[in-house]
Amino acid sequence: MGKYCGEIADAHTASHKSYDIFASNSVYRNAVCLCLLQIGELVNYLSEDFKSTYPQIPWQAIRGMRNVVAHEYGKIDTATVWETAENGVQELQEFCRQVLG
């Protein structure tokens, strides 16, 4: 998971962390969406015991974003994806560093 959080950060850096660029550049948007999909997919492999040990991480929301990206791609709200990538991923990346190594 940490790998994909880092790739989102790299995409932000390469695109100057701009919502306007994100909204208008499908390559940037698709890169972030694929990483969010992968993160959500990896959550499936975590045990319920593990997830309940770390309730501060919104596991259901992460999985929910994966489902939106995977199954409702034509209906994705760009602002919601941006908000997730901008505000949720950094916390998850830090969690991965500290807990998962």
What topology emerges from the helices and strands here?
Blueprint: H1 2-14, H2 19-24, H3 26-43, H4 48-53, H5 59-71, H6 78-87, H7 89-100
Helix pairs in contact: 1-3, 1-7, 3-5
Features:
101 residues; mainly alpha; 7 helices
Mean pLDDT: 93
Strand tally = 0
Instruction: State the shape.
Output: globular
Order of secondary-structure elements:
HHHHHHH
Sheet of most strands = none
Portion in beta strands: under 5%
Radius of gyration: 13 Å
Overall tally of structural domains:
1
Low-confidence stretches: none
**Gap from first CA to last CA:** 11 Å
Which structural class best describes the helix and strand composition? mainly alpha
- Helical segment tally? 7
Amount of helix: over 70%
Q: Can you characterise this structure?
A:
The chain is mainly alpha-helical and 101 residues long. The protein has one domain (1-100). The protein has seven helices and no strands. The longest helix has 18 residues, at 26-43. The radius of gyration is 13 Å and the shape is globular. The model has no long low-confidence stretch (mean pLDDT 93). This is DUF86 domain-containing protein. Keywords: Hydrolase, Nuclease, Nucleotide-binding, Phosphoprotein, Toxin-antitoxin system.
Briefly, what is this?
This protein is mostly helical and 101 residues long. It is built from 7 helices and no strands.
